[in-house]
Every structure is written in structure tokens, then in C-alpha cells.
Write a structure and sequence with these properties.
There is one protein chain. The chain is of the alpha+beta class. It is built from 16 helices and 23 strands. The strands form three sheets. The protein has a 19-stranded mixed β-sheet that branches. A two-stranded antiparallel ribbon has the order 20-21. It has a two-stranded antiparallel sheet with strand order 22-23. A hairpin with an 8-residue loop joins strand 12 and strand 13. The chain starts with a helix and ends with a helix. The C terminus is likely disordered.
């Protein structure tokens, strides 16, 4: 028998090679050819000039030489199973591999399963099958991967006894990246421990990565650990960690500056069921020395929803300042705090129906005091300072001696009540952040499919204008929350002072700032002389002051939709006891613009009715 097998070993190799060629031809329309191949002894196969071409005769892959040590009994059955593989001097065109999608025979395609769990189990099976094909001993050298104009070259790669070592070079039009990979991979249970290190100190010049991440990225070193992967039938469980050092991120939606993170990571414990993806409470997120629990469960079956929790146990408050990434929190990062701070967030969102969002958030304050304000000199709000509007070069002096400044006692109480009632009804009761207003704005933004409301309180608007900027970035919004919390909880100023400054700096029209200028611009009078109608009008145009003229019709009267908004405000003021019943009963939403603003309101000229009738008569005669 052994003699017969020895005589037929060349024929057996031909059968195995032919099967591989035919399978590639039938399923992917690929032509696999060899310059030469032979079986040396019983298990060693040497192949030279391996060329794999697409139907259009483009080279998908080429190898100068490949040496394979095969398992004998699978070879007897006409199948190749590898114990050792050595590959030298090859090139693979990844762009062409991408084009092979959909070229399998349609009769072999499996029906699409709507269950995420079933699909994940199928893909996990594919991964295990592919891992099983990896030889116990693998060596590669001078293997290049091409993707359009980008090239990646493996200088050397070794996998032996579950250990991995590789050196690679990635070349783009303007950058050369040297990478090393070290670690281990167990083919049996897929346990993985891999560290990648790059010599790139800036961003990666790699278009595909930018597209996937939707940002410019740079990472000096990256560690991936998969401790366990288990298919338990009813769920798939994955436990592992991702850690990175010297991370650079640029995304203008997050921050207008480059974000730098010296060290960050995520320990995860994840389960996928037929209805949910669950991140359990053992999962933790790490950022520059801070560590917080992050858990969630995402129900993907209709109606889909997500419930997430973030818990940061109390730590020295200065540790939080020091953990803030570079390129973010420009003001806050210069502060020095005493005491301890923690954080709790419980978040629920109905994704499909968009009718329910719940936020339970709180900061744990254990004796927090500001030792040094740094660039964030929050105390300036109590004294004289110059405000620089974001869309004007004209500085505004916040000083009671200024002729345009109006103290709170000289502003009509009905105007104050109307502004607070419209902009922030619970201003005197909350600590700077109104959670239910944020919930409401999130729902409206989701339902409209665009950003229309921000849920900002008067304190938040004040901080944005006086200390920060108007950029719509995540970084600016988070810093706004942080500074607002400090102002309100460290009692840096009073509610009345905040309200007085707010009413003297907000935009009330084209290059019109503060109530003093607004009162003259619209009504040619000082604020103290404003009547109820004028106070309500000024309060209602705050959200869109530059479009105040569009609140009027061609006859100079307030439009009906704006009248309804004004009446709603009056009703709310009446319910709060800010307007008596007699004033409410006699109130009608009308206002006469007598100041310079009148020139911007388009009012149709009066027309003589006799001339119109005469013109019609002549038209009929004609």
C-alpha cells in the first residue's frame, strides 16, 4: 500500500491542486496557475510562480515561492491541510479582492437570517474555520499588499507555537510607516494578545482609515486582548480589552483642535443574545489615569432602545482636570481644584419610536473648592469686564457706570419675568443644568432629524457667551456643563447677578446688544419705560433676534403664529402669578415699533381704493 501511495503521490497532489483551481474558478471566477509545483518526500510541497488572476486578467495575488508541509491523511483524501507554510516575495491587490463581492454562485448563497445572533454565530464559525487552516508554523517575508496608491509590505512575519512576531512597512503618497506586531494567538479558543507599535508621531495618511473612522487618526501603540470567546447557543460572550497610547484625533464635530490622549483603554465584557447586546457592569473605560464603570444594554428588536450607565467613584477633583485630553477643555484644564468629585449617569433612549428619553445625572461633590481659576477666571462676572460678542467686533463694557448698561433694578420686572419664563422657567430653582429641558430638546431634535434646540439654561447661555465660544462641538458643550456646574455649586455669583449680566450682553437685533440698546433700537425709550406689550415682544425675539422683522405682516402687525406664542407666554406668566387677571384679560398681542428698527420692517405702501376702482373700470372697458 505504501509503495502504491508513493507511486501515486504526484497524482494525489495534482488532484488536490485541481480541486483548488476549480473551486476558485467556479465560485470567484479566478484563474490559479503555477510555474512549477512538486511533492518532496511525503509531506513537503514546493510551489513556484503562483499567480491568481481575475476574469479581467488582473493579478489579484502573486508569490515567487511557497513551501508547504502538509498532513498526509488529508492529502490522501484530496485535501490540503497545513502544518507549516513558508511564503516568499509576494504581492496581493486588496482593491481587486474587494471587487470579488457578489461573484459567488447564487445557488450557494444562504438565506439571510434576520437574527443578529444567528449571523454572529455563522461568522464566528467562519473565523474558527479560517483559524483552523492556519499552519502551526508560519513564516513570511517580503509580502506586499496593494490598495490603490497605498502599499503595505510585511518585511517578516513569524507564527510558531502560538507566538507572533511581524515587521511591516506601510507606504502612502506622503508617508512611510514602520510597524511591529508582537503577541500570541491560540487557534483553538481564539484567545489573542497582540501589541502593535508604530513610529508615526502624527496622523496616519491612510484614506481608508479616515473614511472608516470619519476622522483623522494617529496611534503610537495599540494593544488588543481577547481573553474569551464562547458560543453558548443562546448567546455569544466576548471578554477582552483595548488599550492605546499617544492617540491623536481630529474631528471638527468633536473639537476644532487636535485631541491628544496619552493613554486610554476599554475593558469589555459583552454578550449578544437574540434580542440584545449587553455590556455588563464589569466593563470599564480608562482615560489618562481615570477609570469608570460603563455598562449598557441595546435592544435591537423593534422598538429598539438603549439603556446606558456611567459611574465614576469619587476621586481627587484635580485628577479629573489632569485626565482631560489635550485639545479639549481649554479653560478647565488650567484650573486647580481641591476636594473630591464623582459622577453618575443613567441614560435611556427609545431609538425607533423617538418618544422617550430619560436622563438621570448627578455630580458627587465632596468639598470641592477652586484653588486656582487659571484661564477660566469665573469671578470676573462679579465685576467690571469687557464682553466681546462672537459676531461683532464691537466690545461691550459691562459696567454700571456705562451709559448703555442697565442694572437689574432699572429693568421692568415684567420683562425679567417674561425672559425667564420664555428662556428658563426654573432659573431660580435649578443648579445651572435643567435635565428635563435637555430631554425635551433631544426628542425634538430626533423627531425633526436636525439640531434645532439645545436645552440651554440662562446660566449655560451666559457661560457660553462670556467664557467660551459658539462652536457647535461636543468639546465646547461638555466644558460648558463643567463650568456651569462650578459657578452654581461653588457659589461664584448670585442668580440676580447672572440675570443682570445676561440681559446686558445678549443679542437683541443686528449689532444690538443688551436691554439698554434694545429698548432704544425698537422703542426709542429707556428700559424702565417699557410697557407690558413691549416687554413680551422683546422676550419672545431672543431666540432669533436677527429675524425680528419677519414677525410682522405687510401691515406692520404681528403675525398670527407669533401672536399665539406671545399669548402662551402671557398665560404662563398669569399662572405663575407674574401678571394679574385684569392684565391678562385685557391683553392683546400688538406692538408699535417706533425706533430705528422700524426701517427694517417691510410694510406695504397704502393704496388709494378709488384709484384701484378706476383702474379696474378702465380694464373692463378695454
Amino acid at each position: 500500500m505504501w509503495l502504491v501511495l508513493y507511486i501515486l503521490k504526484g497524482w494525489l497532489l495534482d488532484v488536490a491542486v485541481h480541486k483548488a483551481q476549480q473551486k476558485l474558478k467556479d465560485q470567484y471566477h479566478l484563474d490559479l496557475t503555477f510555474k512549477n509545483y512538486q511533492l518532496n518526500g511525503w509531506r513537503e510541497v514546493t510551489m513556484e510562480g503562483i499567480n491568481c488572476q481575475t476574469a479581467s486578467h488582473d493579478t489579484l495575488a502573486y508569490f515567487k515561492r511557497v513551501e508547504i508541509h502538509v498532513r498526509l491523511w488529508p492529502l490522501v483524501r484530496g485535501k490540503l491541510r497545513l502544518e507549516k507554510l513558508v511564503a516568499e516575495s509576494g504581492i496581493i491587490d486588496i482593491a481587486l479582492a474587494k471587487e470579488l463581492k457578489g461573484k459567488k454562485r447564487t445557488e450557494e448563497k444562504e438565506p439571510k437570517d434576520s437574527s443578529k445572533l444567528a449571523r454572529a454565530q455563522k461568522y464566528l464559525g467562519y473565523v474558527k474555520d479560517m483559524a483552523d487552516l492556519i499552519p502551526e508554523d508560519f513564516t513570511a517575508s517580503h509580502i506586499s499588499f496593494k490598495y490603490h496608491k497605498n502599499m503595505a509590505s510585511i518585511d517578516s512575519a513569524i507564527y510558531v507555537q502560538n507566538k507572533i512576531f511581524a515587521k511591516a512597512i506601510i507606504s502612502t503618497a506622503s508617508q512611510k510607516q514602520n510597524w511591529t506586531a508582537t503577541g500570541s494567538f491560540d487557534k483553538g479558543d481564539l484567545e489573542t494578545h497582540m501589541k502593535l507599535v508604530s513610529d508615526v508621531t502624527g496622523f496616519y495618511d491612510f484614506a481608508m482609515l479616515k473614511k472608516l473612522a470619519r476622522a483623522e487618526l494617529g496611534v503610537r501603540s495599540y494593544q488588543l486582548d481577547i481573553d474569551k470567546i464562547a458560543d453558548n447557543g443562546d448567546d455569544i460572550y466576548i471578554k477582552g480589552a483595548v488599550n492605546a497610547e499617544n492617540v491623536l484625533i481630529y474631528n471638527p464635530r468633536i473639537s476644532t483642535d487636535t485631541i491628544s490622549v496619552p493613554k486610554g483603554g476599554f475593558d469589555f465584557s459583552l454578550s449578544l443574545t437574540d434580542q440584545k447586546i449587553i455590556l455588563d457592569t464589569s466593563s470599564r473605560i480608562h482615560l489618562n489615569g481615570l477609570s469608570a464603570m460603563l455598562s449598557s444594554d441595546y435592544t435591537y428588536k423593534y422598538p429598539s432602545n438603549i439603556h446606558a450607565r456611567l459611574e465614576l467613584a469619587p476621586v481627587p477633583a484635580q485628577n479629573i482636570i489632569m485626565a482631560m485630553p489635550g485639545g479639549t477643555f481649554d479653560m478647565a484644564r488650567t484650573m486647580q481644584l481641591d476636594g473630591e468629585m464623582g459622577y453618575h449617569l443613567d441614560f435611556y433612549l427609545n431609538i425607533d419610536t423617538k418618544d422617550s428619553v430619560k436622563i438621570d445625572a448627578s455630580v458627587i461633590n465632596q468639598g470641592i473648592k477652586i484653588r486656582d481659576y487659571g484661564k477660566a477666571d469665573l469671578r470676573k462676572i462679579n465685576g467690571v469686564f469687557t464682553y466681546h460678542p462672537y459676531n461683532s467686533r464691537r466690545p461691550i463694557l459691562i459696567d454700571s457706570t456705562s451709559h448703555t448698561y442697565t442694572t437689574l433694578r432699572n429693568i421692568p420686572k415684567k420683562l425679567v419675568d417674561a425672559v425667564v419664563g420664555s428662556e428658563d422657567p426654573n432659573f431660580f430653582g435649578h443648579r445651572g443644568i435643567q435635565v428635563d429641558a435637555i430631554e425635551s430638546s433631544m426628542l425634538r431634535n430626533m423627531q425633526s432629524g436636525s439640531f434645532r434646540q439645545g436645552g440651554s439654561t440662562i446660566t449655560m447661555q451666559l457661560v457660553k457667551n462670556v467664557f467660551l465660544n459658539h462652536r457647535k462641538t461636543i468639546d465646547r458643550k461638555l466644558e460648558e456643563f463643567f463650568l456651569v456646574w462650578l459657578i452654581e455649586n461653588c457659589h461664584i455669583t448670585s442668580k440676580n447677578r447672572m440675570l443682570e449680566v445676561y440681559l446686558n450682553i445678549i443679542e437683541w437685533g443686528p449689532d444690538v446688544y443688551g436691554i439698554g440698546e434694545a429698548s432704544q433700537f425698537y422703542f426709542n425709550k429707556p428700559p424702565a419705560q417699557l410697557n407690558l406689550n413691549e416687554c413680551i415682544f422683546l422676550a419672545k425675539i431672543i431666540p432669533q433676534p436677527l429675524g425680528f422683522m419677519h414677525r410682522f405682516d405687510e401691515k406692520g402687525n404681528l403675525k398670527e403664529n407669533f401672536q399665539r406664542k406671545v399669548l402662551n407666554t402671557v398665560d404662563r406668566l398669569s399662572k405663575r402669578g407674574k401678571i394679574d387677571e385684569e392684565e391678562q384679560g385685557s391683553y392683546w398681542p400688538e406692538v408699535q415699533i417706533t425706533g430705528p428698527a422700524k426701517k427694517l420692517i417691510k410694510i406695504a405702501p397704502a393704496v388709494d381704493s378709488l384709484r384701484i376702482r378706476d383702474s379696474l373700470i378702465r380694464e373692463n372697458d378695454w
